[in-house]
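A favour, since you know our structure tokens better than I do. Could you add the entry underneath, on a fresh line?
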Amino acid sequence: MDKKELRKHMLQKRNRLEENYRKNANAAITKAFLCSSVYQACKNIFIYISYSSEVDTNEIITRAISDGKTVLVPLTDQVEKRMDAVQITDFNTQLCQRCCGILEPNFASKKPYPPEKIDLIVVPGVAFNRKGYRVGYGGGYYDKYLSQSLNAVTIGFAYEQSLIDEIPSEGHDQKVDIILTESGEHHVS
């Protein structure tokens, strides 16, 4: 199965998860992440804003802001196919729906945070394998960004059913250091 077919299959599978299961899994992932040493030690965090059936990050973002972390979220440039990390200080007032209904910062003029200064990056994915490779949404935004963020610890958030044995990988694909599911941390091999 190629990446496009795999993406479609895994999205359908994730979208069919029962709401109660997803709610409990989100709570377990959030609790484990906020208690983790990697979160406790970081000064800044670049984290996706959850959308649709992704692992929910809203509580983590709000908590990180209240914990005094520098919270960075994606701001995409659809024309240049680029993603920048920009700081937000208020989840409720500094975001608006942009492309495909995804929440992004409502200020395009904000200066991007330097990728090499980021401590921790939380990466979304449709599927992950135990080697840390992922299937995203096909835009390549995270692979490009992660290739510039050499000092950051990278964590992929996923539901346990999104861990699979094989993912076709290409030379530009970037892997994560840790995958966090409702069952706990999976350190990649």
